């Protein structure tokens, strides 16, 4: 259901969230639920504002039973820029900490009811801490990936952060199922766990395709006259293209030296040639086969 627009961004409400509000209302926790979800909405709005400042188009903010999500066009491409990913990811938790501080000050001066302010503070602190957990697709997972991408390849960094996300999702799902005996509201934890596991799995599965999209985007930039730092890689002729792709850094243009059995240089393959080979023949094609196709 469409709720309206915030700063020009469409805000929608998931139908399951509406059902959950009915449950909260029936149990007398509607006001508390609205405060918590309001904090989650502001968290996502902050992500959207910061993303827009980098020229990314925010398509929608959806309120889900376990929080919210800002859908940003080409966020996967921005993720390949560690600086942008880190700033956009950190914006939400920082906003939560600021709001918690403001609420604490207002409550101290008697401007805000102490019990409601306390709930708002706990909600924001909880959102900040949970979202900073180092697991994709959480903000902390994106920060971890941005950090690891400076030391490993982007593909390897994504795999590490996404595996942590799958583990966190599995733990939360099992915890939610176990706690169901104490009340239906704990179903929310299980749903959150399932969503995290699924989202982390998607991050891992699509990482290769996202990287190819970014490399293609970078190639178009070179054709427009942009200058990119280079990086040389060395591999044997029997190495598959998919394995080479895992070693690519997002902020470099790669030249690959292909060696024969005597460790002599067979050929020098550009990043463009490798991308073309991946698209036309797939990741299992070897470097030797790619060289033969070029002849």
Please, how many helices?
11
How much is the radius of gyration in Å?
23 Å
Low-pLDDT residue spans = none
Strand/helix succession: EEHHEEHHHHHHEHEEHH
| Strands, total number | 7
Intertermini distance: 57 Å
Largest sheet: 4 strands, mixed
Instruction: Tell me roughly what share of residues is in helical segments.
Output: 55-70%
Shape estimate: elongated
Strand content: 5-15%
Strand order, main sheet: write it out: 1-2-3-4
Mean pLDDT: 85
Which secondary-structure class do the elements indicate? alpha/beta
Question: What do you see in this structure?
Answer:
It is built from eleven helices and seven strands. By secondary structure, it is of the alpha/beta class. Among the domains are: 1-132, no CATH class; 228-294, CBS-domain. A hairpin with a 2-residue loop joins β3 (58-64) and β4 (67-72). α1 packs antiparallel against α2 (30-53) and α2 (30-53) crosses α5. The longest helix is centred in the last third of the chain and has 37 residues, at 187-223. It is elongated, with a radius of gyration of 23 Å.
